Amino acid sequence: MRNYIALIHKDADSDYGVSFPDFPGVITAGANLDEARAEAAEALALHVAGMVEDGEAIPEPSNLESVMLDAENRSAVAVLVPLNDSPVKTVRVNVTLPEPALKDIDAYAEGHGLTRSGFLLQAARRAMEAA
């Protein structure tokens, strides 16, 4: 199992934001630290699963020293997020949605560094947890 550095950022009046230096554009957030870490693990797993599906190479984890050389990273708290190397079978599904809703979903997902599938999975899990 490999561990990747996640950077947790917190601005006043915002959730805890999480980014991954080894995976630019992969971001997520949580209302508290526990939620942010859980969302980070899920976002990392979903992103890497998509990379594997697309035949892309998975980068080796960076070390903390090289991540912290970037001045923009120094205001964040670094945590390790494990990536389970065992393959998870993904299944393609077909859903029917109104076109405007699909456009909204895609725009939201892209704006938050997620794929459509990743966003829909996060939304479904949150709804199930809240029930």
Task: Give the SSE map.
Elements: E1 2-10, E2 16-19, E3 27-30, H1 33-53, H2 64-68, E4 77-83, H3 99-111, H4 116-130
Antiparallel strand pairs: 1-2, 1-4, 2-3
InterPro entries: HicB-like (IPR031807), Ribbon_hlx_hlx (IPR010985), TA_system_antitoxin (IPR051404), TTHA1013/TTHA0281-like (IPR035069)
Organism: Phenylobacterium koreense
Domain HicB-like antitoxin of toxin-antitoxin system: 4-124
Q: Short description, anyone?
A:
Helices cover 41% and strands 18% of the residues. It has helices at residues 33-53, 64-68, 99-111, 116-130; strands at residues 2-10, 16-19, 27-30, 77-83. The protein has a four-stranded antiparallel sheet with strand order 3-2-1-4, covered by helices on one side.
Task: Give an overview in words.
The chain is an alpha+beta fold and 131 residues long. The protein has one domain: Double Stranded RNA Binding Domain (2-Layer Sandwich). Helix content is 41%, strand content 18%. It contains 4 helices and 4 strands, in the order βββααβαα. It has helices at 33-53, 64-68, 99-111, 116-130; strands at 2-10, 16-19, 27-30, 77-83. It has a 4-stranded antiparallel sheet with strand order 3-2-1-4, with helices on one face. Helix 3 (99-111) packs across helix 4. The chain is globular and about 45 Å long. The N and C termini lie far apart (32 Å).
